[in-house]
Amino acid sequence: YLQVLESGGGLVQAGGSLRLSCTSSLLSSGHAMAWFRQVPGKEREGIACINWNADSVTYEDSVRGRFTVSRENDKNTLYLQMDSLKPGDTAMYYCAADKRRYSACFRPIRESDFGTWGQGTQVTVSS
């Protein structure tokens, strides 16, 4: 039973924007949610996290100021607005739910804190 589903990836030119979405019933159950990304041969890195009521939000340094994470719990949907995209943002992007309920977000965003994952959506930024 798939509990997390990402969408919105695609091909965009450098400087452009994309908005990723993630649907999961866990958003209405008090779970913090995060976005991770991974390129082949590298570890998956957490880039944005938002807690259940959006009063705890963290970003990895390379995306802060360009990416914005948000959530609509009544729609069970998480978003990642990505602006000023760079070729270095090319990766598979994953949505994940924290294992715990009502937890805050921390830096670094640790993969081990998140227990439910989607299958990912590919983002490719051309130069």
Write structural notes for this entry.
The chain is mainly β and about 130 residues long. Helices cover about 0% and strands about 50% of the residues. The chain contains no helices and eleven strands. The protein has strands spanning about 5, 10-15, 20-25, 30-40, 45-50, 55-60, 65-70, 75-80, 90-100, 115, 120-125. Strands 2, 4, 5, 6, 9, 10 and 11 form a seven-stranded mixed beta sheet that branches. Strand 7 and strand 8 (about 75-80) form a beta hairpin.
Keywords:
127 residues; mainly beta; 7-stranded mixed beta sheet; globular
Which helices and strands, and how do they pair?
Layout: E1 5-7, E2 10-13, E3 18-23, E4 31-38, E5 45-50, E6 57-59, E7 67-72, E8 77-82, E9 91-101, E10 114-117, E11 121-126
Parallel strand pairs: 2-11
Antiparallel strand pairs: 1-3, 3-8, 4-5, 4-9, 5-6, 7-8, 9-10, 9-11
What coarse outline follows from CA principal-axis ratios?
globular
Number of E strands: 11
- Average of the residue pLDDT scores: 96
Give me the secondary-structure category. mainly beta
> What would you report as the Rg, rounded to the nearest angstrom?
13 Å
Order of helices and strands: EEEEEEEEEEE
Terminal CA distance reads: 38 Å
* Proportion of helical residues: under 10%
Low-confidence stretches: none
Report the β-strand fraction as a percent range: over 45%
Q: Biggest sheet, in brief?
A: 7 strands, mixed
Contiguous helical run count: 0
